[in-house]
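Module 6 notes. Inverse folding takes a fixed backbone as the condition and produces residue identities as the prediction. Think of it as a translation problem where the source language is geometry and the target language is the twenty amino acids. Below is one complete input and output pair. Work through it position by position during the lab.
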């Protein structure tokens, strides 16, 4: 079985992420969306909440699974028998960092390949940070995040006192 992993912070999942998930799930037998727990950043949602938000939006894709991990991506992949890392690229500015990470991951495990998928042009401007910034100001989130999670994002922003 050809298994790919799509790692990221997903704080929260956006329509840009969902677009990559849909397209990657059409290419692989199984896609595991992995919420990476990065202690360096202070997230809005904790990892369990992020997994739950993603699960709700990918329910329609039977070959997509969602997990979180504190391990290195390559170690997580070894444990799941996955050989391909999926990364979305919005602009050239994403490339420098992602290229570096891809080379590091190959150094750690040369059996793993990173595949870059170009963002849909509709979503090149979109990031989780943009979503959080817009939510703070009460903007309409319909064009930014899956409709299943809009209320959760607004509630969280309020409960954290960001609004
Ligand atoms: P961000 O916080 O910048 O939204 P994440 O760490 O959650 O990013 O992103 C995980 C992966 O999704 C990365 O490969 C990132 O390049 C990609 N990605 C993020 N937003 C988009 C988008 N709008 N279109 C395509 N890929 C995206």
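Target side of the pair, the amino acids:
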């Amino acid at each position: 079985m050809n298994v790919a992993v799509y790692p990221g912070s997903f704080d929260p999942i956006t329509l840009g992420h969902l677009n990559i998930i849909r397209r990657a799930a059409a290419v692989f037998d199984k896609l595991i969306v992995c919420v990476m727990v990065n202690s360096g950043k202070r997230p809005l949602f904790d990892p369990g909440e992020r997994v739950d938000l993603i699960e709700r939006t990918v329910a329609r894709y039977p070959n997509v699974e969602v997990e979180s991990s504190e391990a290195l991506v390559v170690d997580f992949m070894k444990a799941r028998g996955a050989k391909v890392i999926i990364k979305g690229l919005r602009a050239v500015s994403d490339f420098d960092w992602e290229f570096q990470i891809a080379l590091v991951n190959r150094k750690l495990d040369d059996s793993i390949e990173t595949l870059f998928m170009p963002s849909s042009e509709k979503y090149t401007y979109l990031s989780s940070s943009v979503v959080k910034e817009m939510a703070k100001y009460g903007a309409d989130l319909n064009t930014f995040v899956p409709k299943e999670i809009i209320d959760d994002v607004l509630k969280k922003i309020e409960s954290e006192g960001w609004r």
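Reference fact for the lab report: The longest strand covers residues 30-36.
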